[in-house]
């Protein structure tokens, strides 16, 4: 499953499925009642633009995605 990431160095957008979920603390409910996945997503291969291994907070990746009911990673259903 390809996910879309934004390079924080160049603001370029790229898609990859070569990433790992790290520091997974599960889904928690925030103070607004929204569900947020508290985890860190780490690229397994370098960013195609700046060649760095970026890390992202899973909740920061929520906006571009609308998780399907069948998705193995449900990032958020809020925001
Ligand atoms: Zn980058």
Kindly estimate the percentage of residues that lie in beta strands according to DSSP: 25-35%
| Mean pLDDT over all positions | 79
Structural class: mainly beta
How many angstroms separate the termini?
Answer: 21 Å
> Could you say which overall geometry the principal axes of the C-alpha atoms support?
elongated
The H/E string reads EEEEEEE
Instruction: Report the count of strand segments.
Output: 7
Uncertain segments: 63-79
Ligand catalogue: zinc ion
The number of helical elements comes to 0
Radius of gyration: 13 Å
Question: Biggest sheet: strands, sense, closure?
Answer: 3 strands, antiparallel
> Strand order across the biggest sheet?
3-6-7
Tally of structural domains: 1
How much helix is in the residues?
A: under 10%
Account of the 3D structure:
With 79 residues, the protein is mainly β. The chain has one domain (3-61). Helices cover 0% and strands 32% of the residues. It is built from no helices and seven strands. The protein has strands spanning 3-6, 13-16, 19-22, 27-29, 35-37, 40-43, 55-57. The protein has a three-stranded antiparallel beta sheet, with no helix packed on it. It has a two-stranded antiparallel sheet with strand order 1-2. It is elongated. The chain starts with a strand and ends in a 22-residue tail after the last strand. Residues 63-79 have low confidence and may be disordered. The structure holds zinc ion. Residues 7, 9-10, 47, 49-50, 52, 54 line the site of zinc ion.
């Amino acid at each position: 499953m390809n996910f879309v990431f934004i390079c924080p160095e160049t603001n370029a957008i790229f898609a990859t499925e070569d990433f790992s979920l790290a520091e997974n603390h599960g889904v928690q409910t925030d103070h607004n009642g929204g569900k947020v996945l508290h985890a860190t997503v780490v690229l397994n291969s370098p960013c195609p633009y700046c060649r760095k291994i970026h890390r992202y907070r899973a909740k920061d990746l929520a906006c571009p995605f609308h998780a399907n009911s069948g998705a193995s990673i449900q990032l958020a259903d809020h925001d």
